[in-house]
Amino acid sequence: MSDRPESPTPGTAEVKSHRFRISLIWLVPIAAGLVGLSMVVHSWLSTGPQITVSFQTAEGLEANRTQVKYKNVVIGTVTRIQLSDDRSHVSATIELDESAYPFTRKDSRFWVVRPRIGAGGVSGIDTLLSGVFIGADAGREEETTNTFEGLEAPPPVTYGDSGKRFTLHTSDLGSLYVGAPVYYRRIQVGQVVSYALSKDGKGVDIEIFVNSPNDRFVITDSRFWNASGVDVALGADGLRVNTESLSTIVAGGIAFREPNWSPDPKAANEDTEFELFANEQNALAPPDGEPRYIQMRFDQSLRGMRVDAPVEFLGINVGRVVSMNLEYDDKSGNFPTVIGAVIYPQRLGRAHEELVNEMGGEGDEQTAKLMKRFIDNGLRAQARTGNLLTGQLYIALEFDANAPKVAFNPTTKPIEIPTVAGSFDRLQEQLQAMVDKISRLPVDEIGNNLNGSLAELQRTMKQVNGQVLPEMQGTLKKASETLEQVARTMETANQTLAEDSPQLQQVETTMDELQRTARSMRVLTDYLSRHPEALIRGRSGESAPGSYDPPTPSRTIEEQ
Amino acid sequence: MSQPHYARDLGLCLCHTCGYACDDGAQECPRCHSHVHRRKPNMYARTWALLIAGFILYIPANTLPVMYTSYFGSGTDNTIMSGVIEFWKDGSWDIALLIFIASIVVPCLKFFIMGLLLITCQRRSRWAMRERSKLYRFVELIGYWSMLDVLVVALVAALVQFRALSVVEPRIGILFFGVVVVLTMLAAMTFDPRKIWDAEVDDVR
């Protein structure tokens, strides 16, 4: 402390401090300021467009909380929610990210994603826990705007999806809804996008979207049908239940397919229009072509006939009944039923083509001419029972060679086809005739006669019983006695012929004798053949028969 | 007791580091070889610079999110103030109060007190010198308590990592906040409280 040498340094210290009048420490706030400034600039640059979307309700929406997502990527946040001036809806102010400029295009869509449970499926379950968010879909138009009307349900198809839109025409919507599935060979390939009444209000136009790559299966000849519900068919091969999928039973759907034979399959262009048929059968049937209206007059009750009953030509369904009217015939005083039906000649296929070629056209005149020819050949309409259980009738057009001739006026419209009584009616008539014949039989007389004959027979039988049978008994007794005698005789004969009976022994002896006799006869004849003179001269000595040594007779053998 | 003697009256000056009483005018402390000054050199400029830097960074620390919390896939960013409000709304007013005091009140107090001390010292004000000195000790004492918020975020972010269920992640705001706390602590360190009393005498360098 004490022996420190005095040094002349204070001067230099003064100089040092003067050199750094502005301290380096000010770099710290400058750096901080620069960082703050860069953040301000960054946030200013990254501020995207601000838009306002109106919704029916703000249910689940929260300012500064609810996010706007596209493909589950956050592209903005709801910053404010307020009621509209007329309190009819809420408007949500959304701050979009800088990259979200495409979402300000005029046809962009916004909707609130909430959990939804429908017949077609469940969606948005994750929002149950996480809270709702706003879904967005960027539009394609060039024009931009900052006010949008939010959708109440998510759009089934977003702009990014690749595929094709098609329009279907049908008479009514059925159970279809936006988002209803579209099936191709039972695989879902698309959905209903929208539907609206047609301009004249007489049908429904349904817009569907078929996703890529399956949209190439929609060809110009494709047939669409409503696949809703269950199709139960009782056929020759048993009960057949046909449905596209479980969800279509509940909710409905559309199916399409190409016909089995389509001559020129080409992928259909976008926005091609198709007809939507009621069911698969109708859809896959060949095209019907121009309908023709015909009329038939039946003189019988047509219980079981109804509108839409089929009209069959030689077993082929060519049309259907469209009207049934009762008329009053003044002359005969009865009530004929007039059936109106449409027939589609094209359903006859090749026959139709050939007939058209032959007649040289398809006009009304040619048709009438053709009909006249057919009717002259015996074409008649007949109401037949299609189903014995339910008694439903259908119209059968068939050639009946025996049908009485009918005058046909080709100029009347619509063409009237003569009729014959129905098959069931005919059967009834025949049965009636048979019953009549049976009832005319003299059943009483036959019965009386039969009774007399039976009485006669009874008497005869009694006689037989009383007289013939006792006599028969006596005869039988005698016969049995005779038979006993015969039996006795046979016994005696048996005894006689027994092996050790004397009669048999006698016979044996006799036979021996006879043998000997025959032998001596042989000796004699031998001798005579050698000495025929002996007959005259008698026997010589040497040639006496005594030289012949006879064998031992049987008797001597016995005696030995 | 009369006024105490000043160090320079005795030709002494204290070492900042070891408190050794060196000769006035010595360059180095003979004991610990650290630089010796009568007062902390360039004190006003340093303290002001650190304080201003801290104040600038305090703005992004409050406006930027400090924490990202995600429950079942729905994530939200929280700033300090929104966190306080959320806790308050949820009924945890005690936690809300704690965070509010540690993260909002304390830094603000520090800015205010340090600013006040600097201005009064530069103006050589003789107003309430003893109280000002107490305020300075208070600032030094509470300085690091502001780190509570940073600690909470760091802990929670490390602990709550349940993937799909809930995730907590730190956000850039907490970095700024941490820097603010460090800068204000440095500012308090560079401030030389002896300057408060220098108003009584001639300027001391």
Overview of this structure, please?
- Chain A: This is Mammalian cell entry protein.
- Chain A: The chain crosses the membrane at residues 24-45.
- Chain A: It is found in: Cell inner membrane.
- The complex is a heterodimer of chains A (560) and B (205).
- In chain A, 32% of the residues lie in helices and 28% in strands.
- Chain A has helices at 10-19, 27-46, 126-130, 246-251, 280-284, 350-359, 364-376, 423-440, 443-496, 502-530, 534-537, 554-559, and strands at residues 47-55, 67-70, 73-83, 90-97, 109-113, 116-118, 121-123, 133-137, 147-149, 163-170, 181-184, 187-197, 204-211, 223-226, 231-235, 238-242, 254-257, 273-277, 292-298, 310-313, 316-326, 337-343, 379-387, 392-399, 415-417, 419-420.
- The longest helix of chain A has 54 residues, at 443-496.
- In chain A, a hairpin with a 2-residue loop joins β11 (181-184) and β12 (187-197).
- Chain A is α/β, with parallel strands linked by helices and 560 residues long.
- Chain A has five domains: 44-149, no CATH class; 163-284, no CATH class; 292-436, no CATH class; 443-491; 503-559.
- Chain A is elongated, with a radius of gyration of 61 Å.
- With 205 residues, chain B is mainly alpha-helical.
- Chain B has two domains: 1-38; 42-200, Butyryl-CoA Dehydrogenase, subunit A, domain 3, CATH 1.20.140.
- Chain B is 55% helix and 10% strand.
- Chain B has helices at residues 43-63, 80-90, 93-122, 129-142, 147-159, 172-190, 194-197, and strands at 12-14, 21-23, 67-71, 74-78, 166-170.
- In chain B, the strands form two sheets. Chain B has a three-stranded antiparallel sheet with strand order 4-3-5. Chain B has a two-stranded antiparallel sheet with strand order 1-2.
- In chain B, β1 (12-14) and β2 (21-23) form a beta hairpin.
- In chain B, α1 runs antiparallel to α3.
- The radius of gyration of chain B is 22 Å and the shape is elongated.
- The two termini of chain B are 27 Å apart.
- The relative contact order of chain B is 0.17.
- The mean pLDDT of chain B is 85.
